[in-house]
């Protein structure tokens, strides 16, 4: 079983915590140390945001983090170097790159897959690459033993859900709300019933993201979900810190209660 | 094998390797619904006759095909004909599409309209039809564009639309489109997104093209009457490319030369332009695969054109396809050439073209010069220039 599959195994009963940070935000040299900090406070998988100039699915916090990272000169090839550096001290924690298709198109699919594999990337989540348009990249990723993570949304129909599950290998990412990342309209009741519906159709673990920002919202969606993704709230905290030590401290204070709350379930 | 262009896009919305549906999962079902609804009304007589009636009685179609005799004589080459989209209600071709899409929105039971705009022409055209239908309308516009197109912003407000300023990214059209997408994903159930050009995910490129293809269909008929056959060449400016594909589409499988004119800005060598086909590379932006202007990391870069309506870092996927197959030729015209063409047409024919359309005029004149006198070229005069007089006055140091 792959690193990603092991980390998210449903039968363990543990709730996985998947923090998201934008690579290169607010400073490129913070990213790798912060990834290690996240792991030391109980992150099971790291979602690393690849900065893109036109992040259509992201709310203001991640948009701004992406703009700053681009200003810092961070692009996809730099993100791959960061993962490689992370791997020098951590060969256990899966890293999933999250972003948009154009940087990958620009890199070239084959070159990207090769470099990602060499760097130790476990999976890729591309927001604007639904199953219909993913075939060429998906087969290259599979040949290199990496996953493409697909989203299921509140608007996804039963037929689409089954088609998506068919293409998924390691886990399903459920988008908790109609809206952008960091939005405030999370309704955990309907999230849990949707996640239940997905779990009835697949044995794969289901992660939930978008709009989860603290222990109570994490616990609320983790009633059904196997993993919880936290992005905007974390990115906002990191962005407000003036040096790396402060950021490490802030992450610790932010993540610990969420980790504890998930472990108490 | 000879390509039959009328058969495109395929069932997945692809024009060869271009087009498609590169959207986030939350929108996929809604795009499928839109596609189904659009396929239905495409052959629905009631819908089509309502569309035709609105184009005739509200927009004022057919627009004339005008023989620019003085310009033709001055240039001394092919006969120059102008397709007068500038005479449409609201002053540009944009209304053809918004009339069609708002009828579809009504048919689908949507109660709220959103749109993006650059120069403000599409925003005005959307606010206009929303006012006429009594629907709530929100238009997203970049902060930079709001500053340079103040009159259109005021027009939209007069029409009852809410204009929301977009301050992310480069604060221009592409960012307005991103913000409209974010609105759509949040309010997907009741909202209809009227995209203003032949870009976006399937089915937009096809749908916007079809609503604008009335331009080429009229030209075919008018050319038969006035020239006794098909024109020899067609010329139109290309930003996203809706006026151009509207003119070209009916002639793609005919023996007619086709030229799209991209904004050369300060010149391709300066990097300050909006010529996605001539100087961009294949990528994915705003829901489709096409030529985009991006840097080495795949970040979308800022474009420049004297005309806000051409200032877009991508191009409709069908144009990308026509370029790749060689069916159409895509050339560039710089800011100063467009400005000169604006003055020439204004002085010689008494017609103020939009700065977008002036790009087509500039190339059309060059083309006419090189063609025999008995030949005919049609230039799409996609919009009127009244909206640009402040820009031109500013460039020329005149205070108005």
Overview of the molecule:
With 265 residues, chain A is of the alpha/beta class. Chain A has helices spanning 3-7, 31-40, 60-71, 76-87, 101-107, 109-119, 135-143, 158-167, 188-201, 215-221, 232-239, 244-263; strands at residues 16-22, 46-49, 95-99, 123-126, 147-148, 151-152, 172-175, 206-209, 227-230. In chain A, strands 5-4-3-2-1-9-8-7-6 form a nine-stranded parallel sheet. In chain A, helix 8 links the parallel strand 6 and strand 7. In chain A, helix 2 runs parallel beside helix 12 and helix 5 (101-107) packs across helix 6. Chain B has 400 residues and is of the alpha/beta class. Chain B is 44% helix and 18% strand. Chain B is built from 16 helices and 14 strands. Chain B has helices spanning 25-42, 45-59, 69-75, 94-107, 121-133, 143-148, 150-158, 173-186, 204-212, 214-227, 242-248, 276-279, 317-325, 335-349, 355-369, 389-395; strands at residues 14-15, 18-19, 65-67, 79-84, 112-117, 136-142, 162-166, 191-193, 233-237, 257-265, 281-285, 288-292, 329-334, 376-381. The mean pLDDT of chain B is 96. Classes of the chains: A alpha/beta (265), B alpha/beta (400). At the A-B interface, helix 3, helix 5 and strand 6 of A face helix 1, helix 8 and strand 11 of B.
């Amino acid at each position: 079983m792959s690193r990603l599959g092991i980390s998210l195994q449903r039968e363990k009963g543990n709730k996985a915590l998947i923090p998201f940070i934008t690579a290169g935000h607010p400073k490129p040299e913070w990213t790798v140390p912060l990834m290690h900090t996240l792991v030391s406070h109980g992150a099971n998988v790291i979602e690393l945001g690849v900065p893109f100039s036109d992040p259509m699915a992201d709310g203001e916090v991640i948009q701004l983090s992406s703009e700053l990272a681009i200003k810092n000169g961070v692009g996809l090839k730099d993100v791959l170097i960061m993962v490689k550096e992370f791997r020098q001290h951590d060969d256990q924690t899966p890293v999933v790159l999250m972003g948009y298709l154009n940087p990958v198109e620009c890199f070239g699919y084959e070159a990207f897959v090769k470099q990602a594999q060499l760097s130790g990337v476990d999976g890729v989540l591309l927001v604007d690459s639904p199953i219909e348009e993913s075939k060429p990249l998906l087969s290259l990723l599979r040949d290199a033993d990496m996953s493409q993570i697909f989203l299921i949304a509140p608007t996804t129909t039963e037929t689409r859900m089954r088609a998506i599950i068919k293409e998924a290998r390691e886990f399903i990412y459920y988008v908790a709300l109609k809206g952008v990342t960091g939005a405030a309209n999370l309704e955990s009741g309907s999230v849990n019933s949707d996640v239940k519906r997905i779990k009835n159709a697949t044995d794969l673990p289901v992660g939930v993201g978008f709009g989860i920002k603290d222990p109570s919202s994490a616990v609320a969606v983790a009633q059904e979900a196997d993993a919880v993704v936290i992005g905007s709230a974390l990115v906002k905290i990191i962005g407000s810190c003036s040096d790396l030590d402060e950021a490490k401290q802030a992450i610790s204070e932010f993540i610990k209660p969420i980790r504890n709350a998930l472990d108490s379930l | 094998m000879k390509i039959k262009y009328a058969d495109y896009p395929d069932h997945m919305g692809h024009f060869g390797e271009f087009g498609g549906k590169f959207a986030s999962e939350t929108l996929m079902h809604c795009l499928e619904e839109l596609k189904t609804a659009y396929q239905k009304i495409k052959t629905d007589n009631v819908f089509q006759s309502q569309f035709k009636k609105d184009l005739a009685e509200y927009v004022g179609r057919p627009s004339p095909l005008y023989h620019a005799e003085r310009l033709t004589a001055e240039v001394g080459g092919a006969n120059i004909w102008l397709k007068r989209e500038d005479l449409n209600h609201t002053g540009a071709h944009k209304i053809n599409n918004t009339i069609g899409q708002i009828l579809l929105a009504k048919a689908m039971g949507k109660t709220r309209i959103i749109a993006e705009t650059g120069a403000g022409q599409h925003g005005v055209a959307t606010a206009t039809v929303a006012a006429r239908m009594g629907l709530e309308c929100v238009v997203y516009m970049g902060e930079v564009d709001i500053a340079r197109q103040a009159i259109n912003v005021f027009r939209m407000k007069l029409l009852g639309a809410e204009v929301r300023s977009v301050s992310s990214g480069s604060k221009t059209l592409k960012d307005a489109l991103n913000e409209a997408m974010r609105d759509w994903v949040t309010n997907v159930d009741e909202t209809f997104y009227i995209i203003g050009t032949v870009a976006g995910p399937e089915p937009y490129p096809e749908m916007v093209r079809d609503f604008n293809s009335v331009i080429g269909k009229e030209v075919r008929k008018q050319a038969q009457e006035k020239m006794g056959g098909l024109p020899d060449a067609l010329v139109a400016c290309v930003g996203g490319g809706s006026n151009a594909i509207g003119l070209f589409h009916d002639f793609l499988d005919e023996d007619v030369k086709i030229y799209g004119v991209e904004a050369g800005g300060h010149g391709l060598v300066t990097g300050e332009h909006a010529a996605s086909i001539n100087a961009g590379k294949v990528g994915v932006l705003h829901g489709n695969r096409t030529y985009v202007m991006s840097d080495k990391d795949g970040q979308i870069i800022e474009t420049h054109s004297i005309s806000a309506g051409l200032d877009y870092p991508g191009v409709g996927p069908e144009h990308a396809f026509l370029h790749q197959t060689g069916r159409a030729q895509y050339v560039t015209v710089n800011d100063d050439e467009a400005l000169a063409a604006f003055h020439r047409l204004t002085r010689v024919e008494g017609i103020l073209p939009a700065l977008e359309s002036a790009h087509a005029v500039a190339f059309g004149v060059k083309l006419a010069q090189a063609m025999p006198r008995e030949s005919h070229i049609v230039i799409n005069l996609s919009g009127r220039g009244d909206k640009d007089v402040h820009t031109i006055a500013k460039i020329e140091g005149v205070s108005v």
